[in-house]
From TrEMBL:
Entry-linked SUPFAM superfamilies: PLC-like phosphodiesterases
Organism expressing this protein natively: Sinorhizobium numidicum
Alphabetical list of InterPro entries matching this protein: GP_PDE_dom, PLC-like_Pdiesterase_TIM-brl
Protein name: GP-PDE domain-containing protein
Coiled coil: none
Domain GP-PDE: 51-275
Length: 285
C-alpha cells in the first residue's frame, strides 16, 4: 500500500474485501492525455500498477501498440495497420484528446515500448496486460506470436494476455511461459444475446476456464447481475477467476451506487483512464 500512497497516481484503493487494483487503461493517468505514453509505463512499472496496452499485428508479422485497426485519426499517420509493415509507422505519434501529437507517445512496436522496462526498477505488484486485438476474418500469424514472445522475454511473470479471442490469447500465453491468461467474453455476449443472462454467461466462462485467471467484464454487466441477485463475480472467484470491470470513468453513467455495487461484488480490478478520480470516488463511498 505504501508505494501508491506516496504517489499522486494511485494503483489500488482499499475496498470492503481488500485492495481493488486500478488498471491504467491504455497507460493513461488522465482522460485527456494521449494513450501509450512511455513515461506512464515507466511510472506504473515502478509504482506497482496494473497497466494495459493494446497490440495489433502488422503486415510483416510484428506487433504494434495500437488500439484501432486504422492509424487515423488517433495518430499522426494514415492507413490500415494489418496492411502496413511496422517500419512504415516510424516517426508517428498518438494524439491527445485535443488532437495534438504527443512526443512522449510515439507509435511503437511492442518490443520497442517494453524494452526500457528491463533497465527500470519494478515494484512486485506491477503487471502489463497485452490486450490482443484481432480483426474479423484475420488469423494471428505464427511470426506475430514469436514477435510477442521475444518482445517480453525476461518479463513474463509480469505479463497478462487478455482478449475477446481466447484461442489466440492462449497461443500467446503458451509462447510466453509464466504469463497469465485473461478472457473478455463481451464480444461473445454481443453475438449471442442469450449470454446477457448472468448465469448463462457464467457457464460460458466456466466451459473455457482452463488456464484463465482474469475475466474482463463490462461494468454494467456486473451491475445487472448483482441487481438480479446473481453473484457473478463471486461465482467466478469460486472458480479461481478474478474479475476486471471495464471501463470505469466518471460521467453520467457512473454513480456512487454503481461503484459501490462493483466493490461489494468483490471486483478485484477496475479499468480506468482516470485512476486518481476513481480512487477518490471509491474512497468517498
Amino acid at each position: 500500500m505504501a508505494a501508491f500512497e506516496m504517489s499522486n497516481t494511485p494503483v489500488a484503493v482499499e475496498g470492503p474485501y481488500g485492495p481493488v487494483r486500478l488498471k491504467w487503461h491504455k497507460l493513461r493517468t488522465h482522460l485527456a492525455e494521449a494513450p501509450f505514453k512511455r513515461s506512464n509505463l515507466a511510472l506504473g512499472w515502478q509504482l506497482g500498477a496494473s497497466l494495459e496496452i493494446d497490440i495489433l499485428a502488422t503486415a510483416d508479422g510484428r506487433f504494434a501498440v495500437l488500439h484501432d485497426p486504422t492509424l487515423g485519426p488517433s495518430t499522426t499517420g494514415r492507413g490500415r495497420v494489418p496492411r502496413m509493415p511496422i517500419a512504415s509507422m516510424r516517426g508517428l505519434f498518438h494524439r491527445d484528446a485535443d488532437g495534438a501529437p504527443d512526443p512522449d507517445a510515439p507509435v511503437l512496436s511492442l518490443a520497442g515500448l517494453v524494452a526500457p522496462l528491463r533497465r527500470q526498477p519494478r515494484a512486485p505488484s506491477a503487471n502489463l496486460q497485452l490486450d490482443l486485438k484481432l480483426l474479423e476474418g484475420h488469423t494471428l500469424p505464427d511470426s506475430a506470436v514469436a514477435d510477442a514472445a521475444a518482445a517480453v522475454a525476461g518479463l513474463a511473470d509480469a505479463i497478462v494476455v487478455g482478449s475477446h479471442h481466447l484461442d489466440d490469447a492462449r497461443r500467446l500465453v503458451a509462447a510466453i511461459p509464466g504469463a497469465r491468461l485473461g478472457y473478455d467474453p463481451m464480444l461473445a455476449v454481443s453475438r449471442e444475446p442469450g449470454l446477457r443472462d448472468p448465469e448463462r454467461l457464467l457457464r460460458h466462462i466456466e466451459r473455457r476456464r482452463t488456464g484463465v485467471s482474469l475475466a474482463y467484464l463490462r461494468f454494467d454487466a456486473i451491475v445487472t447481475a448483482e441487481n438480479q441477485g446473481f453473484p457473478l463475480v463471486a461465482r467466478l472467484l469460486d472458480l479461481g477467476i478474478e474479475t476486471d470491470a471495464w471501463t470505469v470513468n466518471p460521467g453520467w453513467d457512473i454513480s456512487d451506487a454503481i461503484l459501490r455495487t462493483l466493490v461489494e461484488a468483490k471486483v478485484r480490478q477496475v479499468t480506468t483512464d482516470v485512476p486518481s478520480e476513481i480512487f477518490r470516488l471509491i474512497r468517498s463511498l
